[in-house]
Structures are given as C-alpha cells and as structure tokens.
Write the structure tokens for this entry.
Amino acid sequence: MSGHDHDHHHDHDHSELSETELRVRALETVLTEKGYVDPAALDLLIETYEKKVGPRNGARVVAKAWADPAYRARLLKDATPAIGELGYAGRQGEHIVALENTPARHNMVVCTLCSCYPWPVLGLPPVWYKAAPYRSRAVADPRGVLTDFGVTLPKDTEIRVWDSTAEIRYLVLPMRPAGTEGWSEKKLAELVTRDSMIGTGLAKRPEDLA
C-alpha cells in the first residue's frame, strides 16, 4: 500500500462513532427537540453536500485537467495550489495529491484509520468509505472490492492503493473516456463521478449521458 502509514494502533473498530461524532449526535438531538433544527432539512443538506455540491467541485477539477494539458501538469505536480486556482481550498484540503489513472495503473484511495477525505473537492465521505469492511478489504483485496463496485480491470493493470491521512489526502484523476474530443469542460464534468475520483469507479461514457 502506498502513501503515509498511520502511526496509530488498529486495535479497535473505528467504524464505531467517535467521541466527536457522539457529541454532534447529542447536540443535534437537543436542538431538534427544542425545535431549532428540522431533521428532514438537515438530512437534505447532508445529502446535497455529499452527492451534489462537493463532488461537483472535483468534477470541475478533473474536467479542466482533461481539457487543459498545462493545468493537468500543474495538478499532478502540486495539486493543492492547482485546485486552489478554481477556488477550492480550506479545511481537509490543505495537502492534496492527485493520482492519475492510466491503462497500466489504477489508483484507489482508502483511509485505513477512519475517514480522511478531501472535503473541498469531494464533499462529505460516503458511508461505505468510513466502514471497516471497505477499509480492510481495499488493502487486502483491492481487485475484489472493485468488482463489488462493478469495475473490472484487465489483469495486467496494476492496482495501487493509497492510504489517506490527516497530512495527505488524495484525488484520483480518472482516465478521460474515448469519444469526448472537442467537448467543453462543462460537458466533460458531467462524466465525472464521485467514485471515479476515489478510484472505486470509472468515469461515465458519453453514451451514459443520453
């Protein structure tokens, strides 16, 4: 496995709620009971940030890298300032490394300790990313995990797993689909999925937009 190894002991199941998460849940419960928070509105906000707003930022980064070779070079050399050029920065995005997928190598990201994740470009981490089965199996059997996500790669494609940490987070640059020559960045961004930027999925094909 690549990336910086965590220096924590892995002798408990970190899929359980942390002390901070428990406090957040308790605070949410109190505010809901007092009528300050609408649970339905809160769920909608979280869903929007996890599936729509956040990943759209990353999709714009990927689309620009596909369309602009100079930007792609800057992104692969030093992702954080390159991403900052598009206005995406801040907490959980201070140190991002971009990993380019190619026919010879497929990159996949996991956080073996908890759920370190590049929030500014991907939004909130999905539930499965934080779950113990993904964190353990991604390291032990990455090809099997990809199969579970519906991704089958050629046998000669190297799969490299990167361990995201509090110090370094990763953004996968998926391969640009064939048949997209001449497409605008806006249209290219429609092909980019959240999972393709984690490495558990591939970008959509042009026909998928029909």
